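Chain A, query sequence.
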Amino acid sequence: MTTVATLPHLPELPVVASEPAERADAARNRRRVLAAADRLFARDGVSCTSMDAIAAEAGVGKGTLFRRFGDRASLVRAVLGDRERAFQDAFIRGEPPLGPGAPPAERAVAFGEGMLDLLEQHAELMVAGKFLRPEGTVRSGPQAVYHVHLATLVRAAAPDLDAALVADTLLAGLDAELFLHQRRGRELGLEELKRGWAALVRRLLA
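Chain A, predicted structure.
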């Protein structure tokens, strides 16, 4: 039986970069733009959402929008970055079982459940972001963080396994395109996907 313990030699995770400090008015405009972009992307899709529409929805000038974000690809990355930083903070410093203090297998279960919640809200945006990141997703900042985190949990729970390979395999099951296929093509429910993830992780690591 796995017991709660502090993970040995926990590596420093490569954090998703934070935005630099901004003036109060610039920070307000940024929040308004990101909230507007998130709403329009969710409603109309990334490809059908223009920068003009986002500026109008946010109540800012087009010049402000383009100076701050440059193009739609940068705006997609910014929206995703906010969500990814919040999730990262939850599994690094949050409450157990997602955060420290729970057995590693249970933290891995909670990680996948949290990722599935993130996908439920933002899978389409994450698919779009995959093709807009110049480095792709396998080596992107967020994926590197997720991989290190999962590999650390695997190594602590089941030292006989190849932690990096298992982390690769588990993350492949949390791919945004696969998630959309499972939810829409196969019509699987979110809770069903969570139960499947939990059963798989516990079979591997318990």
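The radius of gyration is 18 Å. The first helix runs from residue 24 to 44.
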